[in-house]
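Sharing a chain and its predicted structure for anyone who wants a worked example. Both blocks are below, sequence first, tokens second.
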Amino acid sequence: MSEMPEGKHPSLREKGRLMSASEIERTLVRLAHQIVEKTNACEDIALVGIKRRGVPLAERLGVLISGIVKRPVDTGVLDIQFYRDDLTTHDVRPLVNPGDLGVEVNGRHVVLCDDVLYTGRTIRAALDALIAHGRPRCVQLAVLIDRGHRELPIEATYIGKHVPTSSREIIEVKFREVDNDEQVLLVEKVD
């Protein structure tokens, strides 16, 4: 999930651009080929994007994979609204919205898609939400950026780019479908 909670914007200083629009596109092409290779182009694959920025990631990968395997690839949307339990020590648990995924997951090979993998808590909540919709045969994780700092034993199968970060840094992924912009930035919290 993108790391900036909606409506909360501390003072941030841009440290640099990690990926341009063309670099994002090249990375997605590579990820699509890796997914096809590791899944043996399986016919029962479904790409499920974690709302918000995981959705365009899943949709774009779906289009690219469809072009490679020459058949449609199902994509869905997983809506997990939750309190940021990775930012607080209060007893707060993710709130899962039981909305329609838009794709059947029972017995399928599901690739869960998100923009940034950080502590792993978003993915844990997403797995709970996904299982509430059915029992996939297999679940893998595809992320554009893995920035480390895991608090849970969660690992991505497909990673666009590893970006070691400090705890003061934030990765901002911007997709045209959500942000009317296309780039990945490294920013730092300023006191």
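Comments welcome. Strands lie at 12-19, 45-50, 74-78, 109-117, 138-146, 158-162, 169-174, 183-189.
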